[in-house]
Amino acid sequence: MSISDHGTRVVTRSGCLFDIRPARPDDETALAEFFKHVTPEDKRFRFLTGLKEVGHDRLSAMTNVDHHQTENFLAFVDHEAEIIATGMLACDADMKRGEVAISVRSDFKNDGVGWEMLRHIAAHAESIGVNTLESVESRDNHAAINLEREMGWTASSYPGDATLMLLQRTLGAQ
Q1: How far apart are the first and last CA of the chain?
Q2: 100: helix, coil or strand?
């Protein structure tokens, strides 16, 4: 799978239709608007800290990526009119292990968007040679933990922090 600015069209099991493409620097304003439609709890789960607002520095880090070691995918409806989800893949220096973090707009939750974003990121990671995907989740984020387990991820306690879980999936083994 090669990354294209034109994106990938996705249809979820519930019939939700959207496009996924890599983030660009000019997406910062739209991404800021997106996070206004993410619940405070989901922002806490995404950033593992309490945030009232996602600031410029974080937004810039999500839109100005190197498209090699780090990729941030955005999901859009209505021909890029609004972002409904974002999913980051950040790989280690040897590109063998990658960490995933996903956020979905509140009004698009439970439509399969998170599932398809994770599937898209996993396929991309595998195509660039990543062997293992990881996700660090709050133990309270039952929805994400259950989704990842349904997709074949294994869960374990996060070393040194009893409030977190480490979920992992080996790629190419399915």
Answers
A1: 17
A2: strand
